[in-house]
Amino acid sequence: MSDEKAIRAFLAIDPPEEIFDEIIKIQEHLRKAIQGDIRWVRPEGIHLTLKFFGYVYESDIVNISNVVENNVAAMKALMLNVRNLGAFPSVNRPRVLWLGIDGDTDALINLQAEIDTRLQDYGFKKEERPFRPHLTLARIKESKGLVGLAETVKKNEGYTAGSFTISGLTLFKSDLKPTGAIYTKLGYFPFPE
Description:
Strand content: 35-45%
Number of helices: 4
CATH architecture: Alpha-Beta Complex
Distance between the termini: 43 Å
Structural class: alpha+beta
Largest sheet: 5 strands, antiparallel
Radius of gyration: 17 Å
Number of domains: 1
Number of strands: 9
Order of helices and strands: EHEEHEEHEHEEE
Shape: globular
CATH superfamily: Cyclic phosphodiesterase
């Protein structure tokens, strides 16, 4: 039996600082407009997650890294736009408040699907839900007592936070702390120039 320590890990795109600045602005606006049982995600903790692994071991990190590296080998830089406000599964039964992503999303969706498929060879379960690129702004525990969400989403659904180019993927470690998760980069997988 190995005494290897398990770590929580996920594969994501790390938005640039100018996008985080815009996220802070929209979150401040939304905090004033919406009341209820909402847990706001700290801006530095917002990523465009492609695959959440849960707890993995060092040997898993090696396999994940190989799969990601092989799949980004043919990628070109992608331009993404951060815009539109919405809620999953809907504004009437919200669990997640998000900013949408559009732009070169077809290529991103295909990359995510290929990585997800290849990871099955190493025992990682394929995601059943379709990949919908977004940035999570807040999580809603209880929609009962929520005031102002539907109206605020409707008013701000055309919100634009900006555009950015992605030229690689990052593998993160997530340490859960009482004050919130701490993220550490385990690896970066650049797209070829």
